[in-house]
Structure to design on (1131 residues):
């Protein structure tokens, strides 16, 4: 007998055949990341029920997880694409194109020529979740669609929406936005199928046309009817466009087939190849060594594979804690102090940072002492957020005089006029000002927040380069926090847990989707929560600098690095950052900003301070005006965003303000003396009310552009025209 | 239109040639990519002179993801250079996306460029990857079947040394004689017409730049210079980043079209020439000895001008993802520009997607610095130059508003 076993990323499959190739048994099961256990279960079952016999029968393995397991049972490993191609050539000589989509990978095979000159061209990708089965399932899970239902969902006839085809995590976010906007799940799923087929065609055809006949293989292609429809739709379109000759007497859709045993092609290919190999190759040696490996061996391997913890000697850790333990707040270089028992708040400069999750404020004395700070969680209404923040400031400042107000964060443009702020400062400038004020010789500021990573590269006292990553989840604090939550570890204790680890698993940098399955895999090998957290802290710098920031050469950035942002309140992350940066730039000096969470607000205050020193007199409206701001909120069909098919249900918050320009042209007209703030939009475009406002904005923009020309505009306009005479 | 020298040269042939051929109905498509962005008018002038109706000279539209999705999908090649890679979308659009079908797809392999630095530098060659781009992209349309032939299109891809005008007539005649039924004389004449059109266009752009600088000088206002390859003017490649700065009230100059008038050049470089540090205003050997690449040379020269010209207080550098030609120039250009305190910001690794969020924050950051430092910078840079600025001696604008509006 010959047994072909395919150890995939989510399922294992086997096919048992007689030496003549006649199929005796086949099965597939999900392994829930326990590949070795599932294979042993298969082999035991085959021995018991079908008489698979060690020393006589032969076993051939294929699939991404085959390598290690095969050697333990004496099996031969066949590369998966080779296996699939062997099965296809045997069973479907007329097939010219194969797409096999797996759990975490995707492949295409192009067959060219005929007979002896038959060649094949293989393309595959397995580094990213885009276009794979996980991509669909992850999003479907988020939408709470059971797999059975997902399998029956269709593609044809639904309006499609734009879903990122590149990354599973983006796709999930897109799907979420669509759902929130009230798009039916059927349309979202159809759009997902579209994204998968697009991704496969875009990345895995490389100039080749998928010619008929076409075979679709692998779990997702077999199970998801909608995905099959999406393939048919796209392939027929391509054939028509590229005038591929099709048989006239046949429905072209029939040229695309999904065999019933589409899951088993790799395993079938193993049998095909085994039959061509000499009798002594791949002889089954029984499951004993595999059993030993499952029960003992893998834990020994854990020790071998792992690396040391976040520190080598207790002294080293102690030294680190001395330097970084108090976030450097007592450092003598600081000119910002918080020490006094009764700070003088009689004359202050105010700095506010309206971020996406919290709003923070600080007060500086005219001597630039930090005399007060506070924060408020953002509740989605910037007016209420501002009121909450200013109530706290008023309680502290009392009758004190506000000399100047600086404001930063994404809410700065909305709130500047409403508060009467004197300086609206872009985030980078605010952070750089705060960082350079404390560390004037810094070369780089790395701000890791909950949801985004910002890297500011400084040169001659200016921000010369800036990297923002708010799209890829790997590298941000929320991911670490999410994993800790699953382990039941509170945020502020992550560092203590992580420092307890004596050793830790080596996790893979990059895609958060695969990182999640990597974690499950490591847990299975016996790694404990604190060890996994330590491992996660260790790869965070890689994800921040290399994967998200795209900076491979840290030495080029400089030698003095400031770490700030909430995530750097976690000392284990700081330790990992310090070790990582020093490994790249040995002479590096790494400091944590003493007020890492408030740096933005401090920067805004410092800039307002400068403005005040140069003779500026504040336009601050006063606490009473802010407290008594009258506003009305409109949420109606008229406030729905029409810029894209997502159709966000926005709200308009209209604030009564002396000197407000009003919006007479709006569908929700606003008289003079009022200003409008738009919220609940999911992208910047939604901040513009509608076509009418766009016209107003465009007209103003055109005027500016005419007054300040751009030579490229002339080239674009005139360079490709007929020759002027 | 006739040029005496040519009549002498080809006099006999001209008289023997058959009457002018009617090419007015021939439709030629040109992918608007790469160095077409700096030689556009040459091709328009050349084809028009051959009797092709101006309305029958079709350029593909600006690069866009939609264009690539619609027309380039699955015909892509393995090339990390996005400006080359996106060409398959342009080819596809010209083949499939035209209401009136084209007869000829003209995608020249431009080996060298006509540059104002020619004679002052070692050579004015193009990037080899860019030059050979058409070969690479063509393959995606020939791989399985000849897509050009199927659509009744003649594909021509002349190898052309635009930097050496004397070679061009022969090169274009060789490549186009069959598809357009050309003789040598008319080719030579059309080539001259092409150069004339390009030169006229370039002159006009340089004049516009000079007007902008004059306005800046009169009003003590800063402007921003873009250092980039010509194709970064393509909204799908350069993502119109400079337009966002323009919207904040700064005129935008491009290095390709800086004024090169003698008075201005002497004002900026005269002292260094007299001191013997450089031989001419266009000598870049002090900063870039291996001056072979045309666009690279011009970028380096642009950096030198930016460092000296008072009203250029900020330089924006564009570079596409993994550009091997740009790589060695990053540090030199930055150092040259910053030597005089001029602000320098690089937008590197540009590819198909526009990172709008990050660009918005960077633009606001740049605006902050330009507003903060320009006044001082202009003063400092002026102090380093001879007293009489030729720009301030230009004729005063007729209207008192002195607006720059076109």
């Amino acid at each position: 007998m010959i047994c072909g076993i395919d150890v995939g990323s989510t399922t294992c499959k086997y096919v048992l055949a007689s030496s003549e190739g006649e199929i005796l048994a086949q099965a597939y099961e999900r392994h829930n990341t326990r590949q070795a256990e599932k294979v042993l279960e298969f082999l035991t079952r085959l021995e018991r029920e079908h008489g698979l016999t060690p020393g006589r029968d032969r076993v051939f393995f294929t699939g991404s997880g085959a390598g290690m397991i095969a050697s333990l049972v004496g099996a031969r490993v066949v590369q998966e694409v080779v296996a699939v191609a062997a099965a296809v050539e045997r069973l479907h000589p007329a097939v010219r194109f194969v797409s096999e989509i797996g759990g975490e990978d995707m492949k295409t095979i192009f067959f060219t020529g005929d007979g002896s000159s038959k060649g094949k061209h293989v393309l595959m990708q397995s580094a990213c979740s885009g276009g794979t089965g996980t991509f669909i399932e992850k999003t479907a899970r988020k939408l709470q669609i059971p797999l059975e239902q997902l399998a029956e969902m269709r593609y044809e006839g639904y309006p499609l929406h734009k879903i990122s085809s590149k990354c599973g995590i983006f796709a999930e976010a897109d799907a979420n936005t669509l759902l929130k906007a009230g798009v039916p799940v059927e349309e979202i799923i159809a759009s997902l199928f579209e994204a998968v087929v697009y991704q496969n065609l875009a990345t895995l055809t490389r100039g080749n046309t998928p010619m008929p006949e076409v075979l679709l293989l692998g779990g997702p292609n077999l199970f998801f009817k909608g995905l099959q429809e999406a393939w048919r739709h796209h392939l027929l379109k391509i054939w028509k466009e590229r005038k591929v000759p099709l048989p006239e007497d046949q429905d072209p859709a029939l040229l695309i087939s999904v065999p019933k045993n589409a899951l088993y092609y790799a395993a079938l290919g193993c049998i095909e190849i085994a039959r061509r190999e000499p009798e002594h190759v791949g002889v089954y040696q029984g499951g004993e060594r595999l059993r030993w490996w499952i029960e003992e061996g893998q834990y020994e391997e854990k020790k071998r594979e792992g690396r040391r913890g976040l520190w080598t000697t207790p002294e080293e850790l102690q030294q680190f804690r001395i330097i970084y333990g108090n976030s450097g707040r007592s450092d003598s270089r600081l000119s910002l102090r918080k020490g006094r028992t009764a700070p003088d708040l009689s004359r202050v400069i105010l700095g506010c940072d309206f971020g996406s999750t919290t709003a923070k404020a600080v007060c500086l004395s005219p001597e630039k002492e930090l005399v007060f700070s506070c924060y408020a969680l953002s509740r989605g209404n910037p007016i209420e957020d501002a009121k909450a923040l200013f109530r706290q400031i008023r309680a502290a400042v009392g009758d004190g005089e506000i000399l100047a107000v600086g404001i930063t964060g994404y809410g700065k443009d909305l709130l500047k006029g409403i508060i009467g702020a004197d300086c609206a400062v872009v985030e980078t400038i605010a952070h750089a000002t705060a960082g350079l004020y404390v560390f004037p010789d810094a070369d780089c500021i790395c701000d890791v927040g909950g949801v985004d990573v910002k890297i500011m590269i400084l040169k001659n006292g200016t921000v010369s380069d800036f990297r923002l990553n708010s799209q890829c989840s790997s590298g941000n604090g929320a991911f670490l926090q999410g994993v800790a939550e699953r382990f039941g570890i509170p945020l502020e204790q992550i560092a203590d847990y992580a420092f307890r680890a004596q050793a830790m698993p080596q996790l893979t940098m990059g895609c958060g989707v695969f990182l999640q399955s990597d974690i499950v895999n490591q847990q299975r090998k016996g790694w404990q929560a604190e060890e996994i957290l330590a491992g996660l802290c260790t790869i965070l710098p890689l994800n921040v600098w290399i994967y998200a920031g795209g900076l491979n050469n840290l030495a080029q950035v400089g030698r003095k690095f400031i770490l700030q942002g909430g995530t750097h309140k976690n000392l284990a992350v700081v330790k990992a950052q310090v070790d990582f940066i020093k490994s790249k730039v040995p002479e590096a000096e790494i400091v944590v900003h003493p007020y890492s969470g408030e740096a933005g607000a401090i920067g805004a205050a410092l800039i307002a301070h400068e403005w005040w020193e140069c003779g500026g007199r504040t336009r601050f409206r006063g606490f009473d005006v802010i407290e008594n701001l009258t506003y009305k909120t409109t949420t109606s069909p008229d406030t729905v965003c029409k810029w894209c098919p997502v159709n966000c249900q926005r709200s308009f918050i209209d604030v009564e303000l002396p000197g407000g320009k009003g919006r007479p042209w709006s569908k929700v007209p606003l008289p003079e003396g009022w200003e409008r703030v738009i919220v609940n939009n999911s992208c910047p475009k939604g901040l513009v009310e509608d076509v009418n406002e766009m016209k107003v904005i465009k007209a103003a923009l055109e005027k500016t552009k005419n007054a300040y020309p751009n030579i490229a505009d002339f080239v674009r306009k005139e360079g490709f025209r007929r020759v002027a005479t | 239109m006739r040029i005496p020298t040519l009549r002498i040269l080809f006099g006999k042939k001209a008289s023997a040639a058959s009457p002018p051929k009617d090419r007015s109905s021939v439709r030629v498509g040109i992918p608007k990519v790469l160095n077409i962005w700096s030689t556009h008018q040459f091709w328009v002038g050349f084809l028009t002179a051959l009797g092709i109706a101006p309305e029958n000279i079709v350029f593909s539209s600006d690069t866009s993801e939609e264009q690539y999705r619609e027309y380039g999908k699955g015909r892509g090649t393995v090339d990390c250079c996005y400006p080359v890679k996106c060409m398959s979308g342009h080819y596809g659009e010209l083949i499939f996306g035209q209401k009136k079908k084209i007869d000829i797809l003209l995608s020249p392999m431009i080996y060298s460029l006509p540059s104002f630095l020619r004679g002052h530098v070692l050579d004015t060659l193009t990037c080899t990857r860019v030059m050979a781009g058409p070969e690479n992209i063509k393959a995606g349309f020939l791989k399985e079947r000849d897509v050009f032939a199927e659509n009744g299109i003649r594909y021509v891809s002349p190898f052309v040394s635009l930097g050496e005008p004397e070679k061009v007539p022969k090169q274009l005649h060789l490549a186009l004689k069959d598809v357009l039924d050309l003789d040598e004389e008319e080719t030579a004449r059309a080539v001259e017409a092409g150069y004339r059109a390009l030169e006229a266009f370039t002159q006009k752009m340089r004049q516009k730049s000079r007007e902008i600088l004059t306005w800046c000088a009169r009003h003590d206002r800063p402007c921003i210079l873009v250092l980039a390859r010509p194709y970064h003017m393509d909204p799908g490649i350069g993502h119109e980043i400079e337009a966002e700065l323009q919207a904040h009230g700064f005129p935008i100059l491009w290095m390709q079209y800086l004024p090169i008038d003698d008075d201005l050049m002497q004002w900026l470089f005269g002292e260094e020439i007299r001191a013997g540090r450089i031989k001419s205003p266009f000598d870049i050997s002090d900063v870039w000895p291996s001056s072979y690449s045309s666009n690279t040379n011009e970028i380096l020269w642009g950096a030198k001008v930016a460092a000296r010209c008072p009203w250029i207080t900020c330089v924006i550098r564009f570079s596409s993802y993994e550009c091997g030609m740009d790589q060695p120039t990053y540090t030199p250009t930055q150092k040259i520009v910053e030597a005089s305190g001029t602000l320098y910001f690089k937008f590197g690794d540009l590819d198909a997607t526009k990172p709008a969020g990050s660009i918005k924050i960077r633009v606001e950051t740049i605006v902050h610095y330009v507003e903060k430092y320009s006044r001082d910078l202009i003063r400092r840079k002026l102090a380093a130059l001879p007293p009489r600025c030729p720009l301030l001696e230009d004729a005063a604008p007729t209207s008192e508003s002195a607006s720059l509006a076109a």
Remarks:
- Residues 328-338 of chain A have pLDDT under 50 and may be disordered.
- The domain at 347-431+599-613 of chain A is CATH 3.30.420.40 (Nucleotidyltransferase; domain 5).
- Chain A touches chain B through 50 residues (CB under 8 Å).
- The CA atoms of residues 96 and 212 of chain A lie 6 Å apart.
